[in-house]
């Protein structure tokens, strides 16, 4: 009678593969979490820049003074308003899991020519100073996110 070979994996082989996968996952998870936090911070910063640029365009096209107010109407939100704080757009909320906030900031007020009185810096942070995103608004109204 000829011996038959059974195909498949032994229990030892399966345990070794599962162990290796677990080790690789444990090594990878922290770096993925850090990358996700940086991505959320960058996304939030880009949304704020987009809102500031849109407010500038609206101020010129409407021939109206407009402001972008931060932590308004609530913490972690920002909104475009007119000179008397009447809403021009809907409140926007910073993206992310709630750990992204405004650091140092000054509300941005555009004239009817799309300019501001002095250069302004707005910081968006996730609590890690090394990852802070700084938004620069020049007196001419240009917005930069380095």
Major sheet characteristics = 4 strands, antiparallel
Which structural class fits the helix and strand makeup?
A: alpha+beta
Question: Percent range for helical residues?
Answer: 25-40%
Kindly identify the CATH topology.
Answer: minor pseudopilin epsh fold
- Strand segment tally: 8
* Number of domain modules: 1
| Ends distance | 77 Å
Specify the number of helices.
1
The assembly state of the depicted protein chains is: single chain
Approximate shape: rod-shaped
Strand order of the largest sheet: 3-2-1-5
Structure description:
With 146 residues, the chain is α+β, with helices and mostly antiparallel strands. The protein has a single domain (12-144), classed as minor pseudopilin epsh fold (3-Layer(bab) Sandwich), CATH 3.55.40.10. Helix content is 36%, strand content 21%. It has one helix at 11-62, and strands spanning 66-70, 77-82, 92-93, 101-102, 108-110, 120-125, 133-137, 143-144. Strand 1 (66-70) and strand 2 (77-82) form a beta hairpin. The longest helix is centred in the N-terminal third of the chain and has 52 residues, at 11-62. It is rod-shaped, with a radius of gyration of 25 Å. 19% of the residues are buried. The mean pLDDT is 92.
Question: Layout of SSEs?
Answer:
Layout: H1 11-62, E1 66-70, E2 77-82, E3 92-93, E4 101-102, E5 108-110, E6 120-125, E7 133-137, E8 143-144
Essential attributes:
36% helix, 146 residues, minor pseudopilin epsh fold, alpha+beta, four-stranded antiparallel sheet
């Amino acid at each position: 009678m000829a011996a038959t070979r059974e195909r498949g994996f032994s229990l030892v082989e399966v345990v070794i593969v599962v162990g290796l996968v677990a080790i690789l996952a444990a090594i990878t998870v922290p770096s993925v979490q850090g990358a996700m936090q940086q991505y959320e911070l960058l996304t939030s910063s880009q949304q704020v820049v987009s809102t500031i640029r849109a407010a500038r365009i609206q101020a010129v096209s409407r021939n109206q003074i407009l402001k972008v107010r931060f932590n308004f109407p609530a913490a972690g939100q920002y909104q475009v308003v007119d000179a008397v704080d009447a809403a021009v757009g809907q409140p926007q909320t910073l993206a992310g899991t709630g750990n992204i906030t405004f650091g140092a900031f000054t509300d941005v007020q555009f004239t009817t020519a799309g300019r501001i009185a002095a250069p302004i810096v707005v910081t968006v942070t996730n609590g890690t100073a090394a990852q802070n995103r700084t938004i620069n608004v020049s007196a001419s109204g240009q917005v930069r996110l380095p």
